[in-house]
Structure formats: C-alpha cells, structure tokens
Design a protein that fits this description.
- By secondary structure, this protein is mainly alpha-helical.
- The protein has one domain.
- It is built from four helices and no strands.
- The longest helix is centred in the C-terminal third of the chain and has 24 residues.
- The radius of gyration is 13 Å and the shape is globular.
C-alpha cells in the first residue's frame, strides 16, 4: 500500500498528508478530496464532480497501470461510502 500512497503523492505534489498507516492516510486523503475539503466552503464542488476530476487525473498520469487501478479502486470505494452516507440523510 506504500507504493500506492507514493503514487497518490506524486499526483498531488503540495498536498500535506497525515502520518500513520499508509492505507488509512490514503483513504482519508481521497475521502477529503472527494468531499472537496481542501477548498473554501463557498467554492466546493459536489462529490461527483470531484470524483470525475480525480479519476481523470489518475488515468492521465504517468504512473504504472497497477497503481492506477489501485488508486481508482480506492476512489470508487470512498465514493460509495460518501454516497451511502448522503442517502441516509
């Protein structure tokens, strides 16, 4: 999972990530990205828009295919979590 986290970091050069278990750090970062928590509340985009831009960024990157698949899989899983929470509201 450390390689996947490093691949994620290569896509987001200036993003500060927490320390800890690489999978937990990666999932938290992707979840925050999809919720657009790195933007000011007045300009935040919907999770579907952020998902599109994030997956496009991964697909268009120069990282290895297996790392792309791992990142995209985690993006899908985190998006499903976000959607399940919003459906309950």
């Amino acid at each position: 999972m450390e390689k996947v986290l490093e691949a994620y970091r290569s896509l987001w050069n200036n993003r500060l990530l927490n320390e800890g278990d690489s999978e937990d750090v990666l999932r938290e970062a992707i979840s925050r990205e999809l919720k657009d928590e790195f933007s000011h509340p007045r300009v935040r985009k919907q999770p579907h828009e952020k998902y599109y831009f994030a997956t496009k960024r991964v697909i268009d990157s120069d990282i290895e295919s297996e790392l792309k698949i791992a990142l995209l899989t985690i993006h899908v899983e985190e998006m499903e979590k976000i959607l399940s929470v919003t459906r309950k509201l």
